[in-house]
Design brief:
Radius of gyration: 17 Å
Structural class: alpha+beta
Shape: globular
Order of helices and strands: EHEEHEHEHEEHE
Number of helices: 5
Length: 167
C-alpha cells in the first residue's frame, strides 16, 4: 500500500473525468460534496435487471459498474464554477487485468486469489491523494501482489504524465 499526493490536481482531474485513461477500472463507491453530497453505490442493482439479464455475463460482466459508465455522471456533479468541497472514489482494476500485473514477476499468487486491486482517490478541499490497496479472497503471507500493484500504479501515473509525491 502506498499513498501518493497528486501535485497537479487540475491535470489529474482532466485525466480522471475528461478522458478514458481510467476506464480499466470499476467503481465500488463514490461520494461527491458540492452544494449537496451525492453518493453512488457502484454495486449493480439486482432489481433493475431481469433474471436473464442478471445472469448474462455479456450484459453484466461485473458486480460493479464500469468507471466508463459512471464517469460522465461524476463529471456532471463536479463541473461548475465552484470546486467541490470533497470527493472520494473507490476504484477496482477490472479483473481481466490482474493476471498481467501478477505476471510481471515470479509471483506464486494466482489471479483467482486476488479479489481486487484497489485505487482510493480522495480530495479533501486542500489536496488530492491516491492510496493503493489489495484485497484477497483469503489471507496470504505473500506481499508480492501489493508491491506489483504499487509499482503498476506508479508506472500508470508516469505514463499519463500525472505528477505525484509519495507520502
Amino acid at each position: 500500500m502506498i499513498a501518493l499526493k497528486i501535485t497537479n490536481v487540475k491535470h489529474f482531474m482532466g485525466r480522471l473525468l475528461g478522458s478514458g485513461d481510467f476506464d480499466s477500472f470499476l467503481l465500488e463507491e463514490a461520494s461527491v460534496s458540492t452544494y449537496n453530497t451525492f453518493y453512488i453505490d457502484g454495486h449493480q442493482n439486482r432489481d433493475f435487471y431481469t433474471t436473464e439479464e442478471w445472469e448474462d455475463s455479456a450484459i453484466r460482466p461485473y458486480d460493479f459498474s464500469t468507471w466508463k459508465t459512471i464517469r460522465p455522471i461524476c463529471f456532471d456533479l463536479i463541473k461548475g464554477t465552484h470546486t467541490p468541497s470533497a470527493f472520494r472514489f473507490v476504484l477496482h482494476l477490472i479483473p481481466s487485468y490482474v493476471a498481467s500485473i501478477l505476471g510481471k514477476s515470479d509471483c506464486a499468487v494466482t489471479p483467482e486469489q486476488v479479489k481486487a486491486f484497489v485505487l482510493n482517490i480522495k480530495y479533501d478541499g486542500t489536496g488530492l491523494t491516491l492510496v493503493t490497496g489489495t484485497a484477497f479472497h483469503t489471507f496470504l503471507m505473500d506481499k508480492t501482489p501489493d508491491s506489483l500493484w504499487d509499482q503498476s500504479v506508479r508506472q500508470f501515473l508516469s505514463k499519463k504524465e500525472i505528477m505525484y509525491e509519495e507520502l
